[in-house]
Structure formats: structure tokens, C-alpha cells
Structure of IS200/IS605 family transposase:
Amino acid sequence: MCNINYHMVWSVKYRRKILKPEIEEYLQELVQQIAEDKGFTVHLFECGEGDHVHCFVSAPPKLSITAIVKYLKGITGRKLFERFPEIKNQLWKGGLWNHSYYVETIGSVSEENIRRYIEHQSKSY
């Protein structure tokens, strides 16, 4: 048995504040669906300030963190553009997400602190 946990953060291109409640709700559904399809677990998912995403994930060692991020950003970006084509206007050319991301592994000691931090992300739209 393995307990490999990650805290991931990535942002919308140009930090555009486009993650409104309706978009966030669909994004959360997509993230859970992707996790189920690809074999990892999303424990927490929050959008912060309408322009970035926090994700708390557990995955088996065979799934690399780069693969997980690629699935999450790639699939959600494509599907959000399909469902909400109007957000493309705010992003000029190209993708929804910034190319970079932040990730850290989480030991069981800091898990509670990470949970608290993600749960208290500000919700100012």
C-alpha cells in the first residue's frame, strides 16, 4: 500500500479571473472524472480568487506527477473551452492554463495543515 500525496497549484493564463462559480463547478466535476479514469484520487479541489486552482491528490507510484498535471490541465482546458467558448475571448490565443505549476509532496504530518490552507482559499469573485 502507498500513501503518496501531492498539493498542486496552477493558474489561469495572465491570471485572468475567469473561474466563476458555474465554471468552477464544472471544473470540479471534470477533475473528479479525470481522477477516476486515470487511477488517482482528488481529496480536495478549490479555486482561489477566480484565477488559480489548488488540488490535493493521492496517486499510486506508477503515475508520475507530470502525467497527473498533464491530464488535469490538458483535459480540463479543452473541455472548459468547449462548454464556455466565451472565456477564449479573455485569453487571446492558446490555452486556458499558464504553462507552469507548483507541486509539493505531502507527508501525513502536514496533511491537515494543507487541508486547512486549501479549504480557506479566498472566494472573492
Q: What stands out?
A: The beta strands are 5-11, 41-48, 52-58, 102-106. The chain has a mean pLDDT of 92. Helices lie at 21-38, 65-83, 108-119. The chain is about 40% helix and 20% strand.
